[in-house]
């Protein structure tokens, strides 16, 4: 029989509550800071007017948006002190001061409710300690979130109008310029460095060499940091140095995440907006050179950063510790190695593999798939199609009907409680059970839809792979095009073995050594073992082929 140890829960001193106040302003201008000071004075008086309240601390965030929790240090400090039992009650002006994000607001309230710490929202007259349901709070926090979206949308519209009219005034100056009365003016010392960067790159010097030269001369960046290759590249890509101002290079989505504008929104070009540092001819020539460098090094563009310098960058991981492999140039060969192993062989024992062996293993794998397409890929495609079209005996419909039934029950409970026919305690208990059951049903629906989506995606990817294999052109050498099309990741388990994770869901193990060609009559003797998952069955069949040898075209 199991032993149960009872742990005493935390109880506050009801005679003297330690009360914390939270304040926030969204900008750091003088008017907002004065508002912040007024809020602090208000809460000092507000808390002192309650005899059984004791001011614990006033937490405040200056110039911080309420849409995200990540950068709000004061709020995170408040939550940490609550977990450390330093606070018994939290007071704030309104829901929008705590958070303009519905999810964050409800998460914070639930987190503090588990600690038996209520929150008082003054404006809405809500005390979460006496709250029967989260429904009202979620409605009000959603309104606050919508208000934030509306305000942000109005601001974006006003900025775009200034873009379109050519009246936009920059708020920050790129390297080589300063701002005077809202206008860009040339900073002669920095401008000399910008022209030098364009000149050196035009003559064939790489961005990394330029950065090293500037660091060697102790030239500081705009913010006093060290020069890096991506810093130099950003300068070379910046069309503002031609004197033209390209507006709306980036944009924020509805979740306030910033993205580079790849054509999603209209961009505005204001010609001769400010004095130029390089002419258009030099700038265009540099863009051609940058494009050639990108193609030469297999760099994936789109984020304006050299995130994937080479074809294998970011795609090789260690099967032992999960670390991304790093490219190394060694005498007469190129290798990829686990970064933890490079730091210390004790941290990870997986040694480096050569790029040539990875390329050869990929060729072997693709040639096997070409050979076994009729026995492996075609049955896999048929099974995936059946799986993608199945509804698991009406499970999805049953879950949807359950959610609708729970909603009707909740409405009935509310009507009974409002008419006085149902006790409030019973209403709260049964409503909570319905909410929990509805949540679980919705999670199952999400998982079911996700599985169906995965099956559909796997079906399309297998069909693309099969179409390529049906062309019957075996690889006699490495070809980057099919690698980019079909391989999602390579997991290196040892210097002699790697697992290729394909975009269609297959995980195929390959030896990293060249072997003899496969006897084409071998497959006819393979016993077709049955698996519940089509992908697993295909991987089993492939493993039998792999154990017999490799196909080198």
Automatic annotation (TrEMBL):
<dbReference type="InterPro" id="IPR011109">
    <property type="entry name" value="DNA_bind_recombinase_dom"/>
</dbReference>
<dbReference type="InterPro" id="IPR038109">
    <property type="entry name" value="DNA_bind_recomb_sf"/>
</dbReference>
<dbReference type="InterPro" id="IPR036162">
    <property type="entry name" value="Resolvase-like_N_sf"/>
</dbReference>
<protein>
    <submittedName>
        <fullName>Site-specific recombinase, DNA invertase Pin related protein</fullName>
    </submittedName>
</protein>
<dbReference type="InterPro" id="IPR006119">
    <property type="entry name" value="Resolv_N"/>
</dbReference>
<feature type="domain" description="Resolvase/invertase-type recombinase catalytic">
    <location>
        <begin position="18"/>
        <end position="166"/>
    </location>
</feature>
<dbReference type="GO" id="GO:0003677">
    <property type="term" value="F:DNA binding"/>
</dbReference>
<dbReference type="InterPro" id="IPR025827">
    <property type="entry name" value="Zn_ribbon_recom_dom"/>
</dbReference>
<dbReference type="InterPro" id="IPR050639">
    <property type="entry name" value="SSR_resolvase"/>
</dbReference>
<dbReference type="Pfam" id="PF13408">
    <property type="entry name" value="Zn_ribbon_recom"/>
</dbReference>
<dbReference type="Pfam" id="PF00239">
    <property type="entry name" value="Resolvase"/>
</dbReference>
<feature type="domain" description="Recombinase">
    <location>
        <begin position="174"/>
        <end position="296"/>
    </location>
</feature>
<dbReference type="GO" id="GO:0000150">
    <property type="term" value="F:DNA strand exchange activity"/>
</dbReference>
<dbReference type="Pfam" id="PF07508">
    <property type="entry name" value="Recombinase"/>
</dbReference>
């Amino acid at each position: 029989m199991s032993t149960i140890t009872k742990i005493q829960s935390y109880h506050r001193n009801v005679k003297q509550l330690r009360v914390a106040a939270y304040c926030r302003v969204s900008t750091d201008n003088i008017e907002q800071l004065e508002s912040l000071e007024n809020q602090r004075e208000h809460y000092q008086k507000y808390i002192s007017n309650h005899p059984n309240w004791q001011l614990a601390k006033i937490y405040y965030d200056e110039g911080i948006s309420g849409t995200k929790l990540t950068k709000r240090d004061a709020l995170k400090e408040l939550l940490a002190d609550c977990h450390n039992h330093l606070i018994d009650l939290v007071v704030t002006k309104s829901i929008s001061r705590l958070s303009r994000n519905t999810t964050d607001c409800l998460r914070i309230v639930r987190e503090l409710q588990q600690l038996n710490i209520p929150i008082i929202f003054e404006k809405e007259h809500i005390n979460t300690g006496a709250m029967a349901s989260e429904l009202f709070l979620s409605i009000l926090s959603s309104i606050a979130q919508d208000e934030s979206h509306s305000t942000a949308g109005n601001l974006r519209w006003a900025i775009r109008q200034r873009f379109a009219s050519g009246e936009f005034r920059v708020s920050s100056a790129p390297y080589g310029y300063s701002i005077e009365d809202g206008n860009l003016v040339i900073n002669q010392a920095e401008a000399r460095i910008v022209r030098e960067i364009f000149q050196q790159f035009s003559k064939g010097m790489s961005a990394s060499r330029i950065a090293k030269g500037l660091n060697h001369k102790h030239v500081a960046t705009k913010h006093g940091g060290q020069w890096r290759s991506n810093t130099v590249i950003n300068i070379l890509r910046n069309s503002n140095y031609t004197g033209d101002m390209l507006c709306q290079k980036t944009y924020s989505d509805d979740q306030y995440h910033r993205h580079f504008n790849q054509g999603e929104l209209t961009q505005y070009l204001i010609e001769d907006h400010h004095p130029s540092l390089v002419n258009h001819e030099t700038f265009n020539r540099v863009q051609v050179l940058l494009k050639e460098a990108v193609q030469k090094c297999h760099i994936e563009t789109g984020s304006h950063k050299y995130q994937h310098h080479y074809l294998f960058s970011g795609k090789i991981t260690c099967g032992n510790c999960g670390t991304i492999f790093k490219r190394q140039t060694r005498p007469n060969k190129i290798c990829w190695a686990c970064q933890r192993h490079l730091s210390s062989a004790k941290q990870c024992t997986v040694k480096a593999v050569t790029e040539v062996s990875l390329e050869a293993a990929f060729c072997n794998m693709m040639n096997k798939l070409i050979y076994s397409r009729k026995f492996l890929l075609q049955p896999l495609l048929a099974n995936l199609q059946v799986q993608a079209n199945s509804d698991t005996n009406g499970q999805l419909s049953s879950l949807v009907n359950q959610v609708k039934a729970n909603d009707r029950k909740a409405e009935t409970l509310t009507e009974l409680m409002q008419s006085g026919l149902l006790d409030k305690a019973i209403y709260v208990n049964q409503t909570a059970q319905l909410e929990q059951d509805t949540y679980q049903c919705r999670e199952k629906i999400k998982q079911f839809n996700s599985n169906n989506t995965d099956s559909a995606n796997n079906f399309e990817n297998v069909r693309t792979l099969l179409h390529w294999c049906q062309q019957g052109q075996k690889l006699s050498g490495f070809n980057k095009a099919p690698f980019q099309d079909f391989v999602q990741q390579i997991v290196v388990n040892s210097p002699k073995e790697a697992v290729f994770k394909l975009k269609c869901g297959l995980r195929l193990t390959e030896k990293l050594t060249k072997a003899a060609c496969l006897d084409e009559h071998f497959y006819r003797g393979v016993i077709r073992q049955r698996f519940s998952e089509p992908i697993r069955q295909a991987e089993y069949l492939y493993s039998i082929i792999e154990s017999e040898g490799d196909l080198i075209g």
